[in-house]
Design a protein that fits this description.
The protein is α/β, with parallel strands linked by helices and 775 residues long. Among the domains are: 36 residues, no CATH class; 196 residues, Glycoside hydrolase family 3 C-terminal domain (Rossmann fold, 3-Layer(aba) Sandwich); 137 residues, Immunoglobulin-like. The chain has 23 helices and 31 strands. The strands form 7 sheets. The chain has an 8-stranded parallel β-sheet. Strands 13-18-17-16-14-15 form a 6-stranded mixed β-sheet, sandwiched between helices. The protein is globular. The N and C termini lie far apart (91 Å). Keywords: Carbohydrate metabolism, Glycosidase, Hydrolase, Signal. Belongs to the glycosyl hydrolase 3 family. GO terms for molecular function: beta-glucosidase activity.
């Protein structure tokens, strides 16, 4: 019989000694010692050495704990046995402080090595407190708003037991037919980079081990937003210059901000699926950029290497993904079931497996899970933080900042408090679910204040009629809407797309208003009553008739739980809209892509049809609404630009440009001051404009402030034909204004000499300072 007398056994792993029963094996001693060490003492290399191959592979496995609409539903006895055997490293579609505490307990107390699990979810624009969809938040041109939203989302998600969010999505998207444009920051690499880094900092905070932060999962590394024809999952044909300068720039900004993980893109770039692209992931992301975090596949993307036609079987797919440095396989169980066979066929994969395990264990250590695996599982904290009053207030303020006034003829807005009877028309005005957008995490429709509810609470005389919706061609409700309008003093019409028109696998071939909404608009316009359109949805829409005929148009996107109050505050002037478009609105579907930073042509577009130029014969040469466009209820005047110097050196040079801005209108308001650059003569053709900085400033009537942008020489580099970042000598044009098509001032300076740049210029934040001079 084995004695229970305790003796000390020293294992020589650099972790001290622990007490074990006499007769315990050295293997058991090592296992228990690993379980006993604190987060700061954990020796990852020693832990990897103690792991069996099956346990190592288990760390690379992420499984479903449920479905997005049935969280935790798969966590039955068989699944818990997998955890006990060390066959799982992470779960998604799980939530709840109490149930996840029990799941974590099984991992750390009943498995051989006691390695904690990672719990994850797509917390894209809020957990329970749902904020505007990311495209709308980008319209705020306010990185601090994006950071604050992520901080609150992390606070709520971590209280529910989660460690990891699959956000931010930073894919640059220039084709609004792509449904997932709603999840990102639009068409521009610089604006996208600022929103990317802000959200990473918001999710992760200054201390990833803090119990109220979560690990950011920046996605989808590659060129997912460049999917051909805007069809989700389709391949992208993107040259290396565009790839590096545009599509990868926000990912580089996220890396600089410290993102602890990335998710790979589903699609292929130039025929190579990203999840198996070693040149992109291992050579560029890891070796060139020096990033060493956790790299996760997207949903079943490792398995989909077979459908892409680059792997003959699952074992080959596992080998391709591991060679590309994909650390974790999301839900496909390709690593779980087929990586062993791949290793037996190619033993060189063993070292790559160990590297992947180390990276996964490192993020678990950095999250503090070895130190206290239960710190995310406080049910009282979970109850206290969800939908906290300060969270709702932040959601309302960010929604207000995300609204974009597209048109406002004759001062139609703001409405007077004595506006008389208002006919509120449109199914979207009463659609709470749609305001949650896609990826609503744990948001509930009952949390939403709709436009109808808010307007009826604010104004004493409102009559509502649905008229028509975005899902049906049924026109039977239009007559009722017309009667309501005829008996009212003015019309507020909510049209656009409901939440399910945009998001993953929600690409559209047409950007025109769906359903019978345009017929509804025409019928209401015919009444002759003042007509304000509130345009809702998750993408730019082609609305030339509305842009021409409506008296005012307010882009309201999908604004989250405080959508209604934010819109109503703006309609009545309590909030002066200051948002700007993060993506151009086309005149028709056939005009896309119509991004502002296109390359020049040998025959630049000319409105004169007698000239052969790069244009469509049946459309004007401009977008309907340009990138950066957005009106307010006041006016802003720009003074002359001042340069700090007429020339700078290519190597380590910098230049400052200062512009005075004055609110010359009657009310306080925000202006987003934007600075663009152009390199007019270079060894490769350069875009006609590129955003290089912005500042959202608030000004009282008559107030004047000076905005100074300081740019480094690296920000004028481009990816050269030699395959490096090159800064060339010559003239640079700087343009400052209120939108890409509303440039108020221009200035030129000279770059002297040649130099090599460092990273994608759009990933580099321009230093901005604002000084006030009073009225």
């Amino acid at each position: 019989m084995v004695s229970t007398k305790m003796i000390a056994i020293t294992l020589g792993l650099g972790m001290g000694a622990i007490a074990l029963p006499v007769g315990a094996s050295a293997q058991e001693a090592a296992d228990r010692e690993i379980q006993s060490v604190s987060n700061h003492e954990i020796d990852i290399d020693a832990l990897v050495q103690r792991m069996t191959r099956a346990e190592k592979i288990g760390q690379l496995v992420q499984r479903m704990g449920g479905r997005s609409k049935a969280l935790n539903s798969r966590l039955g006895p068989d699944e818990l046995d997998r955890v006990r055997r060390g066959e799982v490293g992470s779960y998604l579609h799980v939530a709840g402080a109490a149930p996840l505490r029990e799941l974590q307990r099984v991992a750390v107390e009943e498995s051989r090595l006691g390695i904690p699990l990672l719990f994850s979810m797509d917390v894209v624009h809020g957990y329970r407190t749902i904020f505007p969809v990311p495209l709308a938040m980008a319209a705020s041109w306010d990185p601090e708003a994006a950071r604050l939203h992520a901080e609150i989302a992390a606070r709520e998600a971590s209280a529910a037991g989660l460690h990891w969010t699959f956000a931010p999505m930073v894919d640059v998207a220039r084709d609004p037919r792509w449904g997932r444009i709603v999840e990102g920051a639009g068409e521009d690499a610089y604006l996208g980079s600022r929103m990317a880094e802000a959200q990473v900092l918001g999710f992760q905070g200054s201390d990833l081990s803090a119990s109220d932060t979560v690990m950011a999962g920046t996605k989808h590394f590659g060129a997912y937003g460049a999917a051909e024809g805007g069809r989700d999952y389709a391949g992208a044909e993107v040259g290396e210059r565009s790839m590096r300068e545009t599509y990868l720039a926000p990912f580089r900004a996220a890396a600089n901000a410290g993102t602890a993980s990335y998710m790979t893109a589903f699609n292929a770039v130039d025929g190579v699926p990203t999840t198996g692209n070693a040149e992109l992931l291992r050579s560029m992301l890891r070796d060139e950029w020096g990033w060493d975090g956790l790299l996760l596949s997207d949903w079943r993307a490792v398995e989909e290497l077979l459908a892409h036609g680059v792997a003959a079987d699952r074992s080959e797919a596992a080998a391709l993904a591991l060679r590309a440095s994909v650390d974790m396989d999301m839900v496909a169980d390709v690593y779980a079931d087929d990586l062993t066979a791949a290793i037996e066929a190619d033993p060189s994969l063993v070292a790559l497996l160990d590297d992947a395990v180390r990276r996964i264990l490192k993020v678990k250590r950095d999250l503090g899970l070895f130190d206290d695996p239960y710190k995310y599982h406080d049910s009282s904290r979970e109850a206290a933080v969800m939908l906290a009053p300060e969270h709702r207030e932040a959601a309302r303020q960010i929604a207000q900042r995300s609204l974009v006034l597209l048109k406002n003829d004759a001062g139609t807005l703001p409405l007077a408090k004595e506006a008389g009877r208002i006919a509120l028309v449109g199914a979207l005005a009463n659609d709470a679910l749609s305001q949650l957008g896609s990826w609503r995490a744990r948001g509930e429709a009952s949390d939403v204040v709709t436009l109808r509810a808010a307007l009826e609470a604010e104004h004493p005389d409102v009559v509502y009629a649905a008229g028509s919706d975005s899902r049906s061609d049924d026109t039977s409700g239009i007559a009722e809407a017309v009667r309501a309008a005829e008996n009212s003093d003015m019309i507020v019409l909510a049209v656009g797309e409901d939440y399910d028109w945009s998001g993953e696998a929600r690409s559209r071939s047409s950007l025109e208003l769906p359903g019978a909404q345009l017929e509804l608009f025409r019928s209401l316009k015919a009444t002759g009553k003042p007509l304000v359109v509130v345009l809702m949805g998750g993408r730019p829409l082609a609305i030339p008739e509305i842009a021409e005929e409506a008296d005012a148009v307010l882009a309201a996107w999908l604004l989250g739980i405080e959508a209604g109050p934010a819109i109503v505050d703006t309609l009545f002037g309590g909030n002066n809209p200051g948002g700007k478009l993060p993506v151009s609105f086309p005149r028709s579907t056939g005009q896309v892509p119509v991004n502002y930073d296109h390359l020049p042509s040998g025959r630049p577009a000319d409105p004169d049809l007698t000239k052969d130029t790069t244009r469509y014969m049946d459309l004007p040469i401009t977008p309907l609404y340009a990138f950066g466009h957005g009106l307010t209820y006041t006016n802003f005047d720009y003074g002359e630009l001042r340069l700090s110097a007429p020339a700078i050196d290519a190597s380590n040079g910098s230049i400052s440009v200062t512009v005075p801005v004055t609110n010359s209108g009657p009310v306080a308001g925000d202006e987003v001051v934007q600075i663009y650059m152009r390199d007019p003569v270079a060894s490769v053709s350069r875009p006609v404009q590129q955003l290089r900085g912005f500042a959202r400033i608030d000004l009282a009537p008559g107030e004047r402030r000076e905005v100074t942008f300081t740019l480094k020489s690296d920000q004028f580099a481009f990816w050269s034909r030699a395959g490096n970042w090159q800064i060339e000598p010559g003239k640079i044009e700087l343009m400052v204004g209120s939108a890409s098509d509303d440039i108020r001032q221009r200035v030129e300076f000279e770059i002297r000499g040649n130099a090599q740049g460092s990273i994608a210029p759009a990933a580099i934040a321009t230093a901005v300072s604002v000084s006030g001079e009073g009225r």
